[in-house]
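Incident review: delayed structure delivery

Summary: a single-chain prediction request sat in the queue longer than the usual turnaround. Root cause was a stuck worker, restarted by the on-call engineer. No data loss occurred. The affected request and its eventual output are reproduced below so the record is complete for anyone auditing the incident later.

Affected input:
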Amino acid sequence: MLKLCRQCGQQFKITDKDLRYYEQIYPVFNNKRFQIPAPDYCSDCRLQRRLAFRNERKLYHRKCDFSGKEIIAMYAPDVPYKVYDQDVWWSDKWDPLQYGRDFDFPKTFSEQLRALYLDVPHISLYTNNVENSYYTNFVINQKNCYLIFGGGSNEDCMFGNFISFSNTCLDLMSVFNCELCYEGGVSSNCYNCKFFLYVRNCSDCIMIEDCQSCKNCIGCFGLRNKEYCVFNESVGKEQFEAIKKEYEYLTDEKIKLLRTKLDELKKKVPHVGSHIYNSEDCTGDMIINCKRCEYSFSVRDCENCKYASYSPKSISSYDCTFNSPDGVQFCYNVCSTVGTRNSMATFLIWYCDEIFYSTECHNSSNLFGCVGLKSQKYCILNKQYSQEEYGKMAAKIAAHMMKTGEWGDYFPYEISPYSYNETIANEHFPLDRQQAGEIGMSWKKDDEKGKYQGAAVIVSSDIRNVTDDITRQILTCRQCGKNYKIIQQELNFYRKMKIPVPKNCFDCRYKNRLALENPHKLWDRTCMKCGAAIKTAYSPERPEVVYCESCYLKEVY
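Output delivered after worker restart:
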């Protein structure tokens, strides 16, 4: 089946397998099936809408609306939402059921949910079991971490996104089980590596990409089980140690030279079409230990999923995003939802069952259109019902949503509590103010650059020339012109790793790192060696030489 996307107007395909999936995941209310219709939006536009509800990185100083205490929150102080400090929000000092209300059938479901969302208090930050890690968001089990957004089980890490089980790392993105690493992305099981991308099981390497089980390598691409290599040439231990000594203390100039040489090497060396490891019948990129997963990215230990991203341990789920660490099962169109089953159209739902069109609910079951509930069941718009009453009312509302065309879609953009440029949707689907308004979202005016008089620009690129005094200075980003600071923990890391203090602020470093990662999008191409059809994250316009997995493995082994 071919359809035209209602948002972007592009043609997209819905397969027979997709239709069978939508037929199989129907919810049952009052002993009646409510079929999930085939989507009217393409997978990219569905993802964009889910991401428009997640603000990870924009943090603000504001007051708790319960206690008046000064807090850090992901909600700006001027938005019309009540925000509670985490300790208050999780406590029994307030009751979310007091905001319960009857469903008004002449109105759409979405406008009633939005009204409830405006009334119910929201949590300031989403963290759990963190120690000395206040300036983090969407994380669990953190110790001594700073500006980490998305992830869990980290210690002594700073400036990163989607990091898990890592220790003493800085400026990383989408990494798993790494230690003593700097400026890396989309990698796992690495130790003492600097400037790396798409790397697995490597140690003591500098400026490498797409390498596996390598150690003591510099400026290499696409190597497997190698040691003492420089720009893909084996040089032996003695010569390698001499070359390594030249890069013992990295400077901006040395880093630029290594990057230039690696980029030249990458033009000559074939690239694998997709990074898929120990998996069966999968398409996408960075897929590990999965079966029958299609169009999925950065997933591991999943089965029978499609359009999944950052979603480990998920089973039979479509359109699921940010479901770490425990995934979801039999879910459709969910974001930031963890350990949940048989649910649809949810945001920030943790360890629940049978949840529909609800946000910020935990350890609950059988909720429809609820906000902020904990350990509850059989509620609609935060109003308590008996099991029988719940089934009857949920059936009426689902039928009503079918008539209004809301059933099966994610929340409309207008319900998001954030401006578009506060959310990560703008990172993957960038819009301007006018375009954001056209889809129904506001735009937050950028803060003034606010340069302090006499703000410093770092001159030396040799960490040996940097004194502790830098932690008392206000620095100016050479990329965007905004101010930033270096904290002592950060400076200690640069000294230990023998790398220069960054000249760009954290946000610009993040944007530059994000630009290196392949997009979460697939193109139909042919292997440039054997001509076999492949699906790859390398668009046809890109200059890289791209091989199918079979040809690539013959090349590197």
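Verification: The chain has twelve helices and 38 strands.
Action items: add queue-age alerting; document worker restart procedure.
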